[in-house]
């Protein structure tokens, strides 16, 4: 009698195991990131976007010194050709405070958008948004990847945000 009870229980456990594995597989597929090759019309725009991305990654990781390096490289690359972009990247380069860098980065994102849009030749750049940044005032940033990595909260809320626009 005991053997007959064990067999149905084993069947139930196997069924649950298969269900859990299939859910795990479908979740891992949905978290894959979409990255499209990006090409700019000129070397200045290409380098500027690389340095912007360097800053974004540093802020996402909460790394003040790397954000400073990215800010310095962007300000040197863009020099005085684009005053707002240059000044905001310099602000990031000289700040020792992560929250100040993040605020300047938000302003930098607004300033650099027309430059990115007018110089993008091929590919897609994702304009992403976190509604909770800056005490719920919200903040935007640009990314090469569709998957969200929030530069305003870093590890605390890494995936907080959505794609608001795709720049092509």
Helix and strand topology:
Blueprint: H1 2-30, E1 39-40, H2 43-60, H3 64-78, H4 83-94, H5 98-119, E2 120-122, E3 125-130, H6 133-136, E4 139-143, E5 162-167
Antiparallel strand pairs: 1-2, 3-4, 3-5
Helix pairs in contact: 2-3, 2-5, 3-4, 4-5
Pfam families: DUF3347
Domain DUF3347: 49-117
Protein name: DUF3347 domain-containing protein
What features would you describe in this structure?
The protein has 168 residues and is α+β, with helices and mostly antiparallel strands. It has one domain. It has six helices and five strands, in the order αβααααββαββ. It has helices at 2-30, 43-60, 64-78, 83-94, 98-119, 133-136, and strands at residues 39-40, 120-122, 125-130, 139-143, 162-167. The strands form two sheets. It has a three-stranded antiparallel sheet with strand order 4-3-5. A two-stranded antiparallel sheet has the order 1-2. Helix 2 (43-60) packs antiparallel against helix 3, helix 2 (43-60) packs antiparallel against helix 5 and helix 3 (64-78) packs antiparallel against helix 4 (83-94). The protein starts with a helix and ends with a strand. Mean pLDDT is 84; it is low at 6-32.
Task: Name a few traits of the molecule.
168 residues, alpha+beta, 6 helices, 13% strand
The total strand number stands at 5
Mean pLDDT: 84
**Which stretches are poorly predicted, pLDDT < 50 over at least 5 residues?**
6-32
Total domain count: 1
Rg (CA only): 22 Å
Terminal Cα span: 68 Å
% residues in beta strands: 5-15%
Tell me the overall shape: globular
Task: Please identify the structural class as seen in this structure.
Answer: alpha+beta
| DSSP helix fraction | 55-70%
* Biggest pleated sheet: 3 strands, antiparallel
Order of helices and strands: HEHHHHEEHEE
Count of helices? 6
| Major sheet: arrangement of strands | 4-3-5
